[in-house]
Amino acid sequence: MSRLTARLGALFAGTLLALTAAASGAPAGAADPAYFEFTDYSQERFVFRLDDGAKIAQARAILSGTEREEVHVHGRIIKRTQPYNTRWSYHLDPSTVDFFASAIEVCDASIPYVEDHLDEAGGAFLPGSHWCPWESRLTREVTAP
User: Fold this and answer.
1) What is the distance between the terminal CA atoms of the chain, rounded to a whole angstrom?
2) Residue 78 in domain
3) Which pLDDT score is estimated for 5?
4) 78 DSSP assignment
């Protein structure tokens, strides 16, 4: 029951956010960007950007421990470095980032494995450039670069 209540609350909050954004002329879900870091079994760290207020709230809920189900990161990789993630030659497209509880194996890979096989991403490796590291674990919110 508490899971249902949480889902209904999130739905209500998302609807309210969309209505508020529409009234202000801002795009639905638009928020000041927020940056989060995750790690995986490799212990490497990866920073990604979120622009959607509901996704930012969900990431913060994961970090606080109130969200315990959909806690792993997934999204579409872009083969380009970003100032907030200079360690890697790729980043996650902020408009595609979401969180999951389980996913299919074809999109799973560690942070360094993606870097080492980036030229293959989008084909048989990470079809559609969709990346869903099963062992991803949010570690913290980071300040803007």
Assistant:
1) 41
2) yes
3) 35
4) E
pLDDT, one tens digit per residue, over 16-25 is: 333 334 333 3
- Which residue intervals of the chain are DSSP H helices? 2-24, 53-64, 111-116
Nearest to 144 by CA among 2, 66, 31: 31
The neighbour count for residue 55, using CB atoms within 10 Å, is: 20
Residue 14 falls inside a structural domain: no
25-39 residue pLDDT tens: 344 566 799 999 999
Q: Which domain holds residue 97?
A: 27-142
| Residue 107: inside a domain | yes
> What are the CA-CA distances from residue 35 to residues 3, 42, 144 (Å)?
27, 21, 6
Single-letter amino acid code for the residue at 77: I
